Amino acid sequence: FELSMSSCSRDVWRMARKIIRKEQMKATEGVARMARDAARTYGSRVGLFELHTAASGESASVKPVILRGGLSRLAHGMPGAVNLPAGSVTGVRPQAFEGLDGMPSIPGLLPGQALEGGSECGFDDEEDDDFDDGSETGFGCDTSNGLSATSPFMSKTGSQVAFPPEALGHELHHMSLKELHRNASVGLSDPTSLRRTLRSQRAQALPQAFRKQFAHPGFHPCRVILGDIRQKLLNTRKRMEDLLAEIEPSADDIWYEDEEELDAPLLAIYWSMYECGSGMLADGRLLDLLRRISCFGMCMTKLDVRQESTRHSEAINAITEYLGYGSYFEWDEQKRIAWLASELQGRRPLVPQDMPMTPEVKEVLDTFKVVAKLARSSLGAYVISMTRGASDVLAVELLQREARAQVAAARGCLLEDCKTLRVVPLFETLEDLDHGGAVMQTLFDLPWYRQHIAANHDNTHEVMLGYSDSGKDAGRLAANWALYRCQEQLVAVTKAAGVKLTLFHGRGGTVGRGGGPTSLAILSQPPGSVEGSFRITEQGEMVQAKFGISAVALNQLETYTTAVCRATLRPPP
Q1: Dihedral of CA 117/47/21/67: which sign?
Q2: 116 sits in which H/E element
Q3: DSSP type of residue 131
Q4: Distance between CA atoms of residues 381 and 460, nearest Å
Q5: Please, where are the H alpha helices in 43-67?
Q6: Torsion angle, CA of 524/527/530/536, rounded to 10 degrees?
Q7: What is the CB neighbour count within 10 angstroms for residue 414?
Q8: Residues 228, 107: contact at Cβ < 8 Å?
Q9: What is the largest distance, in Å, between two alpha-carbon atoms of the chain?
Q10: Is there a smaller number of Cβ atoms within 10 Å at the N or the C end of the chain?
Q11: Dist. CA 542–CA 36, nearest whole Å
């Protein structure tokens, strides 16, 4: 039922109209190409009906699609249909070309068009706006899906229906669809008042005024947009399969780069259904889909990349020796930091394409190239095991920038178009835990690094703490005390630098690996170390036990959420 609706908001109609025009152009180009091929084959210019007869050897009953308005201009220059006036035949149904090689595969020729052919909607009667995904539509302005303070609707009593901005709520006035959805997902705004306003506005509108504003007889805009979304999702899945099979994906296919591209048209349809009086339908399967996209994105879950710091040092050493700078291994920490910071501030490429390297170094550099090629929605962080100094973090940043530059050059785009992955130092041994605060202070004292985390990571920083290796290195009691002191140092350093800290606890499973009661473990963290964010690993042997059954998984998530809220609102003294 919801797919068959012919009423929609202005933004949804603009989306559907652009998709229809794009498909019409593809159909016209395909038929014209077939006619040219037939002309070369049969030695003369043939029309569409003769083309089918010559190819199949028999006549067929062909039912034309009648298109009114401006669409007839798309047939200009097509053999057999030149200079057609409005209302003339501009195409035939795909059944007439069944089995004909090269026939463009277009469902119904016009996606969303009524089966009987034709439409009372002429595109030339509509304003020819550029495509707008609705993501920047502001509630409370004249071009906002009809949600203006001076709505074009007339009430059933004959007076104009006007909703002042305050009727939408202060947090919703002049807020875009994307901002509203993002704020609602994190609890910063409540769209309930907007839903009530839209229901009231639709109930008071005269039928004639509503049809004039929203009705598009003969078309099903939601079906058009959802059909386009389905095709892009299929293209996205095929692209992933091609990449896994080491096949170059097709450059002609349009696919989704991230969840925001998928979310925008669905969100526009959601609010369009509310405007058209179908809010109950919008709050069904469509709202469930929007929530799934918000939770899981395009790839279900993100993966972290993890490598030991000595492997990065080996790669940097190979580069410095090849370029004649000397051995990176022989430099002290201050010289390493100075050289790495200088290279990070520069713009020239560092790694030559023809540089000889060992298989171990090649593996490290190839890993960074894969990271640069993949979307940020599929990767979480780059974790550096056995971090001992600030140079270990800067080395990863430099290798990551070099890989991004190479990938950007191969794609013909800017360096900024290849997003950088956040780098997470992992302090594991007793000595590393004691110096964790000093390492982060050294990083924050570097102007380039401060500017980098502010511009690319929203002025937040993540640090991982190792429980298993620290317990092996110093024993359980000494390791737990070192972990507590390290967290206190990290909290003090990040607060002084004005950076939000997220601690990633590598614990779980057995007691020797930091396992124990989840709630007590979170509530016993140092004051200020849990401020609304908390990352923790779940060991492989515990995943099935804690999350294998829905009821048990829900209980675990409630435990985590409750403990983090309590530790944030009422930290220990």
Answers
A1: negative
A2: none
A3: P
A4: 13
A5: 48-56
A6: -40
A7: 9
A8: no
A9: 92
A10: C
A11: 65
pLDDT tens digits in sequence order for the chain, 573 residues long: 556 678 888 888 888 888 888 888 877 777 777 777 766 765 544 444 444 444 444 443 333 333 333 333 333 333 333 333 333 333 333 333 333 333 333 343 344 444 444 344 444 444 444 444 434 443 333 333 333 333 444 444 444 433 334 334 434 434 555 566 566 655 566 677 777 777 777 777 767 666 777 777 777 888 888 889 999 999 999 988 888 888 888 877 888 888 888 988 998 888 888 888 888 888 888 889 998 988 888 888 888 999 999 999 999 999 999 999 999 999 999 999 999 999 999 888 888 888 899 999 999 999 999 898 886 778 889 999 999 999 999 999 999 999 988 888 887 777 666 678 999 999 988 899 999 999 999 999 999 999 999 999 989 999 999 887 777 777 888 888 999 999 999 999 999 999 999 999 987 666 556 667 888 888 888 998 998 888 988 877 788 888 889 999 999 999 999 999 999 998 877
| Model pTM above 0.70 | no
Rounded distance, CA 180 to CA 67, Å? 38
Cα-based angle 123, 126, 127 (whole degrees, multiple of 5): 125
Of 127, 119, 109, 125, nearest in space to 68 by CA: 119
The secondary structure of residue 380, as a DSSP letter, is E
Q: Give the dihedral sign, CA 150/151/157/158.
A: positive
What value, to the nearest 5°, has the Cα angle with vertex 307 and ends 301 and 308? 150
